[in-house]
Amino acid sequence: MNKHDRSNRALAARDLRHVWHPCTQMHDHERVPMLPIVRGEGAWLIDADGRRYLDGISSWWTNLFGHANPRIAAALADQATQLEHVIFAGFTHEPAIRLAEELVRITPPGLERVFFADNGSAAIEVALKMSFHYWLNRGHGEKTRFIALTGSYHGETLGALSVSDVALYRKTYAPLLLTPILAPSADTYEGEPGETPQQIAARRLGELRMLLERHAHETCAVIVEPLVQCAGGMRMYHPDYLTGLRALCDEFDVHFIADEIAVGFGRTGTMFACEQAGVSPDFMCLSKGLTAGTLPLAVVLTTDHVYEAFYAEYSAGKAFLHSHSYTGNPLACRVALETLAIFRDEPVLERNRALAAHLAGRLAPLRDHPHVSDVRQTGMIVAVELVADKASRTPFPAGERRGLEVYLYGLEHEALLRPLGNIVYFMPPYVTTQAELDHLVDTALAGIEHALAR
């Protein structure tokens, strides 16, 4: 095989000889193209043959300010000439210190302590362990369980998967997982006919109360994705649920873990989704947009009250037992600082509101489509639910893979759309222009008709 051949075909062949890709049935690539991307420009990705793809999903929801962003690239290059990495036990560095200070400043009140990790799943592991260990240090070792929402997804390491409600994963890995207590989601799509989002939230809070009355004595924390359950199908719910959740956690003495890994940093219209409910969680997990999609980095923010449960003489054996080799990596911290600087220097959220309104207007006609049961939006996240029958909301059989047809159509027409089953969603970078959004929507609309015509 000619290793000097840099064409799509040659690079894909080399890849498929050795590389095992995530969340992929590799057999699919006998039909589905493997696309080697060689560079990015703004909201666009360019493959080895020079074809362009508008990144409508922000490369797994990470990219905020475009690919190869010059400000972020310059900060990374500068940091690389000073310090690339150092052990974070017993040592520190200014990028991590500054980043912790800035995150404490911009996150909801009361979150004063910052623990660094490598990725979103790792952040969830940290929060779960820290919550359990807090109760253990306080003399409540009987608290060993977690409450999660139906349809939730928090990652794919074993702890994170244990508090997720994805049927395929739980069926496959069930013998390895903890058993969560599942509370019904306040998902507006699953509401009763005529119910408002606020009424759905109130009803689901009543059901959560009943769960806590039975299980609070053994429960460490309730973990939720605020406002949008992303990988679970872009399910959305009213901020009232978060307000009530905070009150219930206080009443029943359990922690509130906010997984803002996908929804943080402006995705929902505010910097953090929790802001829309005016609540502060006991733990906030952040990743993805933290570095604008440039490098792996995650943090868990928590309170001084939690921190104090671990602060003791060495002989007390209360230290938090968790570490990663690349904890607090200086390169990633410096990139995160530049990401936050862009938020400070530019009217990012204001621009996002205009883009979100444009996207809403373009997709509104789909509400009357005979095979669309719902068009839902929270900020810069929009989802279109395709169904076989609109009146009964009967889904298409999963084996028909209608969403895959939308994906393939998009690739043929310069757009990266990667539906969740039969849910076509949009989560573009914040630098996407209205004209580019029009291209994305036009391609998606045509792709949906192509998939439905099968």
TrEMBL record:
Q: Where does pyridoxal 5'-phosphate bind?
A: G120, S121, D259, H324, S325
Looking at its record, which EC class is this enzyme?
Answer: transferase
Residues at the site labelled Participates in the substrate recognition with KAPA and in a stacking interaction with the adenine ring of SAM: C23
Q: Extract the InterPro entries matched here.
A: Aminotrans_3, Aminotrans_3_PPA_site, BioA, PyrdxlP-dep_Trfase, PyrdxlP-dep_Trfase_major, PyrdxlP-dep_Trfase_small
Q: Which pathway is this protein assigned to?
A: Cofactor biosynthesis; biotin biosynthesis; 7,8-diaminononanoate from 8-amino-7-oxononanoate (SAM route): step 1/1
Q: Which cofactor does it need?
A: pyridoxal 5'-phosphate
Q: Where in the cell is it found?
A: Cytoplasm
A biological-process GO annotation: biotin biosynthetic process
Q: What is its main location?
A: cytoplasm
Q: Which UniProt keywords apply?
A: Aminotransferase, Biotin biosynthesis, Cytoplasm, Pyridoxal phosphate, S-adenosyl-L-methionine, Transferase
Q: What is the annotated quaternary arrangement, including any partners?
A: Homodimer.
Function comment? Catalyzes the transfer of the alpha-amino group from S-adenosyl-L-methionine (SAM) to 7-keto-8-aminopelargonic acid (KAPA) to form 7,8-diaminopelargonic acid (DAPA). It is the only aminotransferase known to utilize SAM as an amino donor.
Question: Which family is this protein grouped under?
Answer: Belongs to the class-III pyridoxal-phosphate-dependent aminotransferase family. BioA subfamily.
Name-wise, this protein is Adenosylmethionine-8-amino-7-oxononanoate aminotransferase
